[in-house]
Task: inverse folding
């Protein structure tokens, strides 16, 4: 049987992206406390197809993913991209893995453990060089005294979220990145009363988190979006690091 997909196409029209998406797949991520953490990712894989190819076998994406089964983590992410580009004879390869990361910590009264969930996404592209970005969503909660105040539309102290996208210069644990962001949130919440404000703003919190990210040597660059959720609308502020 002829391989129709790999036959030459003389129309010289590039297809920008072709691939598979929303694949549920088990992956391993590094865990500072427990060495490794097993989680389930939603995976999108796609390539830029040269104009002389009519198409590609979609099953090849899954075959490549399966070859790395049980060994998918940030450390070997580049090897998946390299194999995608080589095996699919693509001009560029891209992969996105969105996954929940769980961090367990003690409550203040130390009577029980609380597991917090953070939405993460690892996005990688390979054309000539590997471009790797990591996104994490850190929830922002109000202090308990404020969260139960009269007239507040939020439940369980929910204030909003901080969405951070970083490029790394050196390795950093996900837990340490979370601690960095949450530490900045705590600082801003503590400073609001001192500065004569009833509560923090998206602008002030964005600046506070950006200052902390900018001081971290392992972070090469970042983009940041802080969003405050209100009843019927939301407010936000964004900031990018200086190249």
Result:
């Amino acid at each position: 049987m002829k391989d129709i997909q790999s036959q030459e196409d003389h129309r010289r029209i590039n297809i920008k992206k072709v691939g598979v998406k929303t694949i549920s797949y088990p992956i391993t991520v590094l865990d500072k406390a427990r060495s490794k953490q097993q989680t389930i990712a939603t995976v999108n894989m796609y390539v830029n197809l040269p104009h002389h190819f009519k198409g590609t076998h979609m099953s090849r994406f899954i075959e490549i993913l399966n070859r790395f089964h049980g060994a998918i983590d940030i450390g070997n992410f580049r090897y998946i991209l390299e194999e995608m580009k080589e095996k699919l004879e693509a001009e560029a390869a891209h992969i996105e893995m969105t996954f929940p990361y769980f961090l367990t910590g003690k409550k203040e009264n130390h009577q029980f453990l609380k597991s917090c969930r953070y939405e993460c996404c690892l996005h990688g592209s390979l054309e000539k060089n590997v471009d790797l970005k990591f996104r994490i969503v850190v929830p922002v909660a109000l202090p308990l005294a404020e969260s139960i105040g009269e007239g507040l539309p939020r439940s369980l102290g929910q204030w909003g979220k901080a969405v951070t996208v970083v490029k790394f210069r050196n390795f950093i644990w996900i837990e340490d990145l979370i601690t960095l962001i949450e530490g900045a949130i705590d600082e801003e919440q503590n400073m609001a009363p001192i500065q004569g404000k009833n509560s923090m703003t998206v602008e002030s919190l964005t600046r506070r988190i950006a200052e902390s990210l900018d001081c971290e040597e392992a972070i090469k660059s970042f983009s940041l979006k802080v969003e405050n959720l209100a009843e019927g609308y939301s407010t936000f502020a964004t900031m990018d690091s200086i190249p």
Residues 1-128 form a domain with the Urate Oxidase fold (CATH 3.10.270.10). The two ends are 52 Å apart (CA to CA). Strands lie at 15-31, 35-49, 92-106, 113-126, 130-141, 158-168, 219-229, 234-240.
